[in-house]
Amino acid sequence: MKQALFLAGLLSLLAVSTHAEDGSKPICADRPGKGAAPCTVDRGHWQVEVDAADFTHDRSSGSTAETGILASTNFKYGVNDRLDLELNVTPFQTQHTQGGGSVSGIGDTVARAKIALLQGDTAVSLLPYVKLPTAQHDLGNGAVETGLVVPIAISLPGQVSLGLSPEVDAIKDDNGSGRHVAYSLAAGLSRPLSPTFTGSVELWGARNDEPSGHVSQSSFDIGLTWIPAQMQTLQLDSGLDLGLNHSTPQMQFYVGVSRRF
User: So what's the pLDDT on residue 137?
Assistant: First the structure.
């Protein structure tokens, strides 16, 4: 109940806020999709990106597991024209495993900083992060973990944009004795479908070099965004991710909203 009230209050804030904006450029958010955008939030402005509802169906472990996330929110603040600071919190997460019961609670917290190196038709940023182990038992591994994403966007002919997000992470071993490397790449194409709608497709692949057994995952992801013509600081989005191998969840569906203040 508390999580539902949190989400309702947050969505109401996003809808009714009338904070003045400098300029009228459309909002640029790190969603939908698994990749990140290289754009940073303008100096002195806040941006809130909410994964309002997220559902994952997974049979990769030999049994069925379903995960739900409610109101996972990324708060961003523009420090200057090339740097923003970010904090992602997940107030509610639930997981149900066939034959294993259910567990619910808060998720992990992630602190990030996005640093723009190049801006324009080719844009590149650095996005280092630290994961803080705030998740309830059985929803996280209880470890502080770090990583680096390098978001890249390249403008192509025909209003098409190519997005690349290589990532490398330092992950706790399952047995708790040390750390190992995991890495991934999200590569996507996006294009306006109308003055307000943009469609995107993405291929994602990941490799986790866990000492007890390496895991490779891949997915094909579809996304859709809507930015109202009269309110360029608001974005609504949805996405569907489809697993391409047995180690990847078969399906993930989500809807979200982002707002710049």
Answer: 77
Is there a domain that residue 21 lies in?
A: no
pLDDT (0 to 100) of residue 176: 79
Note whether residue 152 is domain-resident: yes
CATH number of the domain bearing residue 188: 2.40.160.40
Mean pLDDT score, 79-83: 96
173 neighbors 211 (Cβ within 8 angstroms): yes
- What is the band of 20 on the pLDDT scale with cuts at 50, 70, 90? very low
Contact 166, 34 (CB under 8 A): no
Query: Taking 70 as the threshold, does the pLDDT of residue 240 lie above it?
Result: yes
Domain that includes residue 56, residue range:
2-15+30-260
Reading the block at residue 53, the tokens are 């509802």
The C-alpha atoms of residue 78 and residue 218 are separated, in whole angstroms, by: 33
How many structural domains comprise the chain? 1
In a domain, 44, yes or no: yes
Token pair recorded at residue 191: 């294009």
Specify if 25 maps to a domain: no
> How is residue 257 written in tokens?
């909203």
Distance, C-alpha 94 to centroid of its chain:
18
Token pair for 13:
């804030």
